[in-house]
Amino acid sequence: MRTRTLALAASAGAALLAAATLPGSAAASPDSPREGSVSAAELLAKVTSCSQISNGKYKSDDETSANIPVCGKNGAVFWKADMDVDCDGQVTSKCNADTDPWFQDDTAFHQSDDKPLNAEKLPYVVVPSSSSIWNYANSGIKGGGVVAVIYNNKVEYAVVGDTGPTKIIGEASYATANALGIDPDPETGGTDSGVTYILFKNSKVSPIESHSGAVSLGDSLAKKFLQEN
């Protein structure tokens, strides 16, 4: 829930391996190619064109131009952006006021015990707060909804866990970045391009803090997404 003004350096020269040569893995680690059984290539093949559903476009950071639309597909919405690292929520060794200049000790959506989410441990995605540009709730997106986050031929399932600025898009938790092999440092990490976020409509992981639940439901919804688009 912050506005980033720091320009993130792009990580150049990363080799992209063909999805067919990458074995599947349910474990979230920087070198795991995907979670579940649907590959990054299969998902990306369905989001090559954009049917814009947002009334306008978003910025990736304060100093950039607004050029990122929210796009609609059967059963999902998606956008392609950067990734700023969100450390908001519970105070941990990696996420606190000392490590993150923008740190806030709360998230828009809470765990089943009503505590804020744990950005260090839980893969979650930040959606822009509702505005005249786009109201996420009107598109069937809710707290705990499943998101397939794709970067460098890897798929990580996350939940909608926080809301951010009304004009900026492209942010996910420390755990999401770490699992995708992106530098998770909340101050200097992230990546300035190459991330695709596919949010499945009318989905909800319960409890929201169950990452295994997000993977299981996400894999099922991803298969359905391939069939319907």
Characterization of this structure:
The chain has a 6-stranded mixed β-barrel with strand order 2-6-3-5-4-7. It has 229 residues and is α+β, with helices and mostly antiparallel strands. The chain has helices at residues 40-44, 174-179, 211-228, and strands spanning 71-73, 76-86, 124-128, 146-151, 154-164, 171-173, 191-200. The longest helix is centred in the last third of the chain and has 18 residues, at 211-228. The radius of gyration is 16 Å and the shape is globular. Mean pLDDT is 89; it is low at 1-32. It contains 3 helices and 7 strands; from the N terminus they run H-E-E-E-E-E-E-H-E-H.
Per-chain topology:
Elements: H1 40-44, E1 71-73, E2 76-86, E3 124-128, E4 146-151, E5 154-164, E6 171-173, H2 174-179, E7 191-200, H3 211-228
Parallel strand pairs: 2-6, 3-5
Antiparallel strand pairs: 1-2, 2-7, 3-6, 4-5, 4-7
Task: Supply database-style keywords.
globular, single chain, alpha+beta, 229 residues, 3 helices
Strand order of the largest sheet: 2-6-3-5-4-7
The major sheet is characterized as: 6 strands, mixed, barrel
Low confidence ranges? 1-32
Q: Which range best describes the helical content: under 10%, 10-25%, 25-40%, 40-55%, 55-70% or over 70%? A: 10-25%
Terminus-to-terminus distance: 32 Å
Our Rg estimate from Cα atoms comes to 16 Å
The number of distinct β-strands equals 7
Q: What integer is the average pLDDT? A: 89
How do the SSEs run, as a string of H and E? Answer: HEEEEEEHEH
Overall geometry: globular
Number of helices: 3
What is the compact description of this entry?
Helices cover 13% and strands 21% of the residues.
